[in-house]
Amino acid sequence: MRLGNRVRVLREQHGESLDDLARAVGIDRSQLSKLERQLVGCSDRLKLAIAAHYGVSLTEVFFVVEDVDNESTLTTDDASEHHMADLLV
């Protein structure tokens, strides 16, 4: 699952609108919509804000466990893996 899809799923699971989440993390609704549609990237600050808003770890938001031939693998949805160590310091 790509980053934008994961953010959308989290938002919908929490019963929030685009406006609700955008306001909570300090961005425009249109920017959040673009993020969910994979049209723009996600800054490190925004990644932290989304994770904090939902009370989940960065791993839960930005890493996806996929079932490949009945084996679980931990994958990233984009280039965020290169920034994870910096974010967790």
Structure explained in plain terms:
This protein has a single domain (3-88), classed as 434 Repressor (Amino-terminal Domain) (Orthogonal Bundle), CATH 1.10.260.40. It contains six helices and two strands; from the N terminus they run αααααββα. The chain is of the alpha+beta class and 89 residues long. 57% of the residues lie in helices and 13% in strands. The protein has helices at residues 3-13, 18-25, 29-36, 44-54, 58-62, 81-88; strands spanning 63-68, 71-76.
What brief labels describe this structure?
alpha+beta, two-stranded antiparallel ribbon, 434 Repressor (Amino-terminal Domain), 57% helix, 89 residues
